[in-house]
Amino acid sequence: MSRTAKGLLLLLPPLLAAAFVMAALAWPERLSQVVGAVSPGCPFHRLTGLSCPGCGGTRAVQALLAGDVWAACRFNFFLIPSVLMLLAEYLREAAAFIRRRPLRPSRTYTRIVQVYAWSAVAWFILRNVFGV
Amino acid sequence: MDNPSLSPLPPPPRNTLPRPDNHLPSAILVTCFCCMPLGIVAIVMAAGVDSAWDAGDREKAYRDSERARQWVNWSILAWLAGVVLSALVAAFVHYTAHH
Is the pTM of this model over 0.90? Predict the structure, then answer.
């Protein structure tokens, strides 16, 4: 991929995030409806009746749009570490791009991602077995 | 008789190839966030890189590294396709409901 293409691709996430935040401030109810319409629902939940680690994410975002942080955490608490993880991955990519260096494999980062993945598994078990 | 300093051939090149990137963090992240089936294939490929390298099979290590990278990309593409598809379905449902 050319450097220009990669740069344009890296501009997309902050632009989309900014657009989402501005829309959330301007028309929270309308955006909540759009989120509900676009979300396909969880095929895993439809098939098995179990909640996957991402289940409740749509309702959590809608609760956030309604200003209810506590309800959002109850629908899907795991949204918080997930957003942080995505942010970390984006910052790593962006930093490598700005410094004009290839993304270096990092032992610490690999460990963090592994901890994140195992917490997702733990969260999956906890919410289905103990109804957390 | 077999004096190496008189040999016309240069010494064999030292192993200068670096250990290939195993793409394990990206493989795990796309499994969590993009497309789980394709992400799992990426994790399997990523897990093969270091063991092949440590076993001295440099060719397999580089091949698995490249495959892991490709499966990560397929997983991202599958996710993008899903996003576009669900947006189209939502737009279609909205359109048919109001006209």
Answer: no
